[in-house]
Specification:
Length: 194
């Protein structure tokens, strides 16, 4: 059952932090959206949230005054508001020793993991769920918190759940942190700058 087409999902995709409704996520929907580590334990999420807030303070402490003032109003996570968190990891041994492309591009497995995050995000969006990527953490702290093996890299902590609404304008643009750049600035023909 397709809830939304992929182009609509791409257009509607937002990094959700403050809009989680607090409702649960149906198990059938979870099964259609991903096959990753699901974190529901409130105590684990509270410990991770405390670490994220500490990292936020570290980041804010290094900002010039004007940027620090702008950053103060930006919410960086929905860890305690979303009913489910998904931790996506990159295992360099998965598919080894013959990972296609890894002989020439060492980060091939990492790129594939990032594609899995995007696919999860689009599938969740199509199912009417919000997703927020938490990026204020130290990998070694998350690895220790969830007993992730040393060789496995935690790539993303995603907050997932039903939302009350999606913002029309992405958070960083809405708060004046970053603005969208024109597509023409991102597309080069034949050569960089072409």
């Amino acid at each position: 059952m397709i809830v939304m087409d992929v182009y609509e999902a791409i257009t509607r995709r937002r990094d959700v932090r403050a809009e989680f409704s607090g409702d649960g996520v149906d198990a059938d929907v979870l099964g259609r959206v991903w096959d990753f580590v699901v974190v529901r334990d409130r105590a684990l999420r509270e410990r991770f949230h405390a670490h994220v807030q500490a990292e936020r303070a570290v980041f804010a402490g290094g900002l010039p005054a004007a940027e620090a003032a702008r950053f103060r109003d930006i919410r960086i996570d929905g860890i305690l508001d979303a009913p489910v968190s998904v931790v996506v990891t990159c295992d360099p041994d998965r598919g080894a020793p013959h990972v296609l492309g890894a002989h020439a591009i060492a980060d091939t497995t990492l790129y594939s993991t990032c594609l899995a995050v995007q696919n999860l995000w689009l599938a969740a969006t199509a199912e009417g769920l919000g997703v927020g990527w938490v990026s204020f953490y130290r990998e070694e702290v998350l690895r220790g918190l969830l007993a992730i093996p040393e060789r496995v890299r935690p790539v993303a902590w995603l907050c997932v759940g039903p939302v009350t609404a999606l913002q029309e304008v992405p958070d960083l643009e809405r708060h004046g942190w970053r603005s969208r750049r024109p597509l023409a600035d991102a597309v080069h023909t034949d050569r960089w700058g072409g």
